[in-house]
Amino acid sequence: MRKIILSVIGVLLIIASFLFAQKLIADKNKPKPVQAKVVKTVFTDTVQNTTIPIVIAANGNLEAKRRLELYSEVQGIFKRGNKLFKPGQEYRAGQTLIKIDAAEYYASVQSSKSNLYNSISAIMPDLRLDFPDIYDKWQNYLNGFDLNKTTPKLPEMTSDKENYFITGRSIVSNYYNVKNLEQRLAKYSITAPFSGTLTEALVTEGTLIRSGQKLGEFIDTSIYEMEVAISKTYASLLKVGESVTLNNLDKTETYTGTVSRVNASIDPTTQTITAYIEVKHENLKEGMYLEANLNAKKESDAIEIDRNLLLESEQIFVVKDSLLDVIDVKPVYFSDTKVVLKNVPNGTVILKKAVPGAYSGMLVKPFKETSNTNNKY
């Protein structure tokens, strides 16, 4: 029985081997399928050289053109004024920003002025006797001397004898001592040199202010500047007074500015030059981020294409007899998305959109737009 089973298994293996061999022979004799050539459809454009305006894109933040950092040169208590010293508070030119209590110092100034007045009064009898020709001049000075007003300038001395006499009585030194005190007294009050807005306030009413302490910042909100860095290639093209178009990030607002200043030196690290754009508008705020478009120059006999169409070898693809080929070009300006090229002959058919996996000799078919017409029955 065992021999019969082994014999049957052997026969089955032989039959299976024969059938498998027949299948292999049949598959080997089958003809290989011929792969159809794939022709990619591409978008093309015919070159026509024109004059391309070179517009330099730059960006930056607005800063107030006129800014005043407020510091105290004297010490005292911050007195309350007509307006609260708070950020956002507006002041007109000449209005008091900060007033520090100067009652004690004012008394010392008045005392020095009184001493000066007394010193001049004491020499008047001697002037009447020894210098009658200058007596009236000094008498008129005393008559115009008001302790509640700024000390008037001393009369001009016309002779050496007069100069020696007046100086010997310490009148000149007392006068300049008084003027020095008056100058310091004026520092107890800080006024706005221009109309603007307080953007930073570091003290409040009743605060003890110390000499050298920063009090806040005050800016002119009517005019701003934006600092932009431009490549040194265009350093000679930037001109003061040239108009500049500015946009916000959302492209919803457009402003017009002018180039107010151009730095004379180039940054050695970045090889850029700094330009300052002046702009005025009621909607502008300090710190606002804007994009600027500066008209640098116009490039004649050039074309503008997408940057992704330019190869690293400074070549572009062209279409010749349904095949892709490459030609050498000369890039003259790069923007974020575009590149301006020269040395591309008129009439050359180039790619309008990039083709993935493109290579020289690739078979392509230019895309042709067809107009659909509706037939009415």
From TrEMBL:
User: Origin, by domain of life?
Assistant: Bacteria
Q: Which residues form the CusB-like beta-barrel domain?
A: 227-297
Domain Multidrug resistance protein MdtA-like barrel-sandwich hybrid residue range list: 69-216
Instruction: Give the residue range of the signal peptide.
Output: none
Q: Which GO terms describe its molecular function?
A: efflux transmembrane transporter activity
Any one cellular-component term (Gene Ontology): efflux pump complex
Name listed for the protein in its UniProt record? Efflux transporter periplasmic adaptor subunit
Species name: Lacinutrix venerupis
